[in-house]
């Protein structure tokens, strides 16, 4: 939360499954479009929050399967667990607070009496969350009776039904909405200028009730969320039911509510929506790597102009230190790139960056650090990358690039280097 010096321009709070992540899209096109948008235009002055029903265990599984960015704050297990930063430091105060009138043992004693409730996997049973599957047809009756019995036993609980199948029992003070309210209060003098919440299912409903927020229900939103909206927030102009699925719906909402740039560089290279963005190192990095990806995939026209434009971005005596320790001139790398036009055509080849951060270290010099991810077929590699950029009136010049392998990877040096 302390990454930014002033209030965030936008705090984007998104659910993961079928909101940020479209499980029907194996190419992850819209997720990658969102990633490029976020790192180019928002990372430096905004906050990304993931709010998921998943536990830490299954959240990590999803991170291994999908090209998710690293959020600033992660809210897990339906708002019962909050963690900060890259290293997921847990908020112990939040967990202590949730102990109020909560007794997990009493909950399970009562739920055991319902044969309709099928316990979810062990990983999803958490200190402040007891989770089941229950048929849609039986859900409302079970919820009504169970709630009554738990209240009779002195507990302050809430029951949430999601995706037409999952039933969670939580402390009354928990849930995605309560967790967000808690976070907003914690910002104290640095409350984000705008907040956009994004969701698709029942456990997301309370996000839309948090005071002052904009909200987007993605096109593929579940019946229970749409019903909640119809009965509780029908005339709320700050909630959009997107005509686009998942992450595409999030991008759509950013545009709809005027919360910032809404054209991803994946859709249009070199097109800063605001001219000032040209001076943003995040824009520079995302734009350059996408140009390289599209060149290798043969998705841009093979023209001398494109190559010259790329070449003009590099300092003639600039150096690239590859993760293997091998050093090359940036010119040599560009020559290799030039020859690699279309080499990745039709391949599962994608490049994206995460965690772009930068520091101005001189009047016209920036030190930029980020994770560069490269998916090639089934292999996915991550390079921690540092770049020295020099700002000239015509834009940034790349002076030096240095990479380190992440996750202890010791793969052989590749034939084609994408700095
Ligand atoms: C996620 C969790 C599950 C929960 C569901 C709905 O799928 O893994 O435990 O029931 O979200 O909140
Ligand atoms: Mg969801």
TrEMBL record:
InterPro entries: HAD-like_sf (IPR036412), HAD-SF_hydro_IIB (IPR006379), HAD_sf (IPR023214), NTF2-like_dom_sf (IPR032710), SPP-like_dom (IPR006380), SPP_C (IPR013679), Sucrose_Phosphatase (IPR051518), Sucrose_phosphatase_pln/cyn (IPR012847)
GO molecular function, one term: magnesium ion binding
Cofactors demanded by this protein: Mg(2+)
E.C. code: 3.1.3.24
Annotated ranges, domain Sucrose-phosphatase C-terminal: 281-406
Annotated function: Catalyzes the final step of sucrose synthesis.
Record organism: Spinacia oleracea (Spinach)
Membership in a protein family: Belongs to the sucrose phosphatase family.
Lineage top rank: taxon: Eukaryota
Full protein name: Sucrose-phosphatase
Catalytic activity: sucrose 6(F)-phosphate + H2O = sucrose + phosphate
Pathway assigned in UniProt: Glycan biosynthesis; sucrose biosynthesis; sucrose from D-fructose 6-phosphate and UDP-alpha-D-glucose: step 2/2
Quaternary structure and partners: Homodimer.
One Pfam family it belongs to: S6PP
Domain Sucrose phosphatase-like: 9-258
Entry keyword Ribonucleoprotein: no
SUPFAM superfamilies recorded: HAD-like (SSF56784), NTF2-like (SSF54427)
A GO biological-process term: sucrose biosynthetic process
Alphabetically ordered keywords of this record: Hydrolase, Magnesium
